[in-house]
């Protein structure tokens, strides 16, 4: 018996150790939700027995683990912090997040800062460092695809939002703009004529920039900060244009049940929801009491870290309190400051365990900025939402929420209290219908052969086991866009038509010799 136990134990140990890989995770974007996605990804990889080297601007909050090696890029916070979101400008409607060039330049700058960072340079120059696979976050820059040139191993993109043409272009081809919108316009298919034209134009101009000015700027960063290392180490120096399109896989923080059912290449894998804990952590006593005792249910209002109380005008705060005070439900508001004249049914908390709240049966409605993490959690736990989008893909998610009838959308403006009241009345009057809809979505989301975190581990390991998963590589990458759009055929047909016209003209001329001679004399 003892022998058998020992044998089993040895077998298990050897199984685990042969499947343990060395992974480099590149998550340098200094923004809270990106930190959550990075931290949870490495958590699952570590739990699966892998050894992870993690490039992160959130170094201080990482728990020490012998299998985790931190490459600290905390300095990134000094360049970029979410406070650049000026709420007053958003309220006035004067801010322009829809400026692609602004977003790209900022993200390219963060990528350049990462590649030239002393800790990252040290990592790249260390001949002892070897990895089985690299996972890099796609955040509007292709530059992290240059890491595999240094470590000569397969590369996996991770995309934090719904699949979009820019990231799909790296592993397949851009998406058909007739039914795949850019997050910027937040259009939900089916599009009308003008929307289709708009989406096509945006993709065409976007692709032009990606292949020209952005490409050159990124290539310059590669040449400056990576190529010298390759030369020093005597490694081949691939073209940036090759590295960009050489990823083995694209992991997406998405789920078909939540987004749109659009055709995806085999190298795209949905892992949305992996950041949600398997076990719901118990609520702190005070919150538990509030939720347990709320006879009319609880509305949870949290704008995440986007809407800072210090930026919110007093009349807005007062207006919101009045609206909440007029409800029969209990309102839990996550906010940094306590407000005067708080109605009895309103509780302001500085911090709240969002997932545990959403899991509580008395939680009836979630008022959120509509970020994808919050939306996924709402669907996971089956709670209807009112979205007040502030920036980035939140507008798209908010439109999706409305389109799928799992909630409503409210614009962030000086009229917020009034508009929110309208939305609250609408949803609360029809709560069972909204709840049924989101529960339906929740069932579709959960009914899957693998949990998101299992899919994450499986596909990362699959890439290592199959040496870069060349069998998943989309054939579309070998077919230039003009061929995919049959522009070459169009050119042939046009040329043929012109040729035929010329021939016909020649023949006609032949039968009118007199006129022909006259013309020649002239
Ligand atoms: C492209 O990726 C594959 C699979 O990881 C790898 O074998 C190959 O060396 C890479 N090509 C270049 C030019 O880096």
From TrEMBL:
Protein name: UDP-glucuronosyltransferase
Cellular-component GO terms for this entry: membrane
Pfam family, one: UDPGT
Transmembrane segments: 489-511
Enzyme class: transferase
Domain of life: Eukaryota
Organism whose genome encodes this protein: Spodoptera frugiperda (Fall armyworm)
Record PROSITE patterns: PROKAR_LIPOPROTEIN, UDPGT
GO MF term list: glucuronosyltransferase activity
Membrane listed as a keyword: yes
Subcellular location: Membrane
Signal peptide segment: 1-20
Annotated gene: LOC118277904
Similarity comment: Belongs to the UDP-glycosyltransferase family.
Catalytic activity: glucuronate acceptor + UDP-alpha-D-glucuronate = acceptor beta-D-glucuronoside + UDP + H(+)
Annotated membrane topology: Single-pass membrane protein
EC number in record: 2.4.1.17
Gene3D superfamilies for the chain: Glycogen Phosphorylase B
Keyword annotations: Glycosyltransferase, Membrane, Signal, Transferase, Transmembrane, Transmembrane helix
């Amino acid at each position: 018996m003892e022998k058998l136990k020992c044998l089993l134990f040895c077998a298990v140990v050897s199984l685990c150790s042969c499947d343990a890989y060395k992974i480099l995770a590149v998550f340098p974007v200094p923004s809270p939700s990106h930190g959550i996605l990075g931290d949870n990804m490495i958590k699952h990889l570590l739990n699966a027995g892998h050894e992870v080297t993690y490039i992160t601007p959130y170094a201080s909050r990482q728990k020490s683990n012998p299998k985790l090696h931190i490459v600290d890029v905390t300095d990134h916070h000094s360049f970029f912090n979410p406070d650049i979101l000026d709420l007053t400008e958003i309220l006035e409607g004067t801010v322009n997040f829809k400026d692609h060039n602004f977003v790209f330049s900022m993200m390219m700058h963060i990528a350049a800062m990462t590649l030239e960072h002393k800790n990252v340079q040290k990592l790249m120059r260390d001949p002892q460092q070897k990895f089985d696979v690299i996972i890099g976050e796609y955040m509007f820059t292709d530059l992290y695809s240059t890491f595999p040139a240094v470590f000569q191993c397969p590369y996996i993109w991770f995309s934090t939002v719904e699949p979009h043409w820019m990231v799909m272009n790296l592993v397949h081809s851009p998406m058909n703009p007739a039914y795949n919108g850019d997050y910027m316009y937040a259009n939900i298919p089916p599009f009308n004529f003008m929307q289709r034209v708009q989406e096509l134009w945006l993709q065409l101009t976007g692709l032009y920039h990606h292949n020209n000015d952005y490409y050159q700027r990124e290539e310059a960063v590669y040449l400056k900060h990576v190529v010298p290392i390759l030369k020093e180490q005597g490694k081949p120096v691939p073209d940036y244009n090759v590295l960009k399109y050489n990823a083995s896989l694209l992991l997406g923080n998405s789920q078909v049940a939540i987004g749109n059912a659009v055709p995806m290449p085999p190298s795209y894998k949905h892992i949305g929801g992996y950041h949600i804990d398997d076990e719901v952590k118990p609520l702190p006593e005070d919150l538990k009491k509030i939720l347990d005792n709320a006879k009319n249910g609880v509305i949870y209002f949290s704008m995440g870290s986007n809407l800072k109380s210090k930026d919110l005008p007093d009349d807005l705060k007062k207006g919101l309190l009045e609206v909440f005070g007029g409800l029969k439900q209990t309102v839990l508001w996550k906010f940094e400051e306590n407000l005067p004249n708080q109605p009895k049914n309103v509780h302001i908390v500085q911090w709240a365990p969002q997932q545990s709240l959403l899991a509580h049966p008395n939680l009836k409605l979630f008022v959120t900025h509509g970020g994808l993490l919050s939306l996924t959690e709402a669907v996971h736990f089956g709670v209807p939402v009112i979205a007040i989008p502030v920036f980035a893909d939140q507008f798209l998610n908010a439109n999706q929420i409305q389109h799928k009838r799992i909630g409503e959308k409210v614009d962030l403006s000086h009229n917020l209290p009034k508009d929110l009241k309208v939305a609250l009345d609408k949803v609360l009057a029809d709560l069972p219908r909204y709840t049924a809809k989101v529960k339906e979505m929740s069932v579709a989301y959960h009914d899957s052969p693998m949990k998101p975190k299992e899919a994450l581990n499986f596909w990362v390991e699959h890439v290592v086991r199959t040496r870069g998963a060349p069998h998943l590589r989309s054939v579309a990458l070998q077919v230039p866009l003009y061929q995919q759009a049959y522009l070459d055929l169009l050119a042939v047909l046009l040329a043929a038509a012109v040729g035929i016209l010329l021939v016909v003209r020649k023949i006609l001329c032949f039968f009118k010799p007199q006129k022909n001679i006259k013309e020649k004399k002239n």
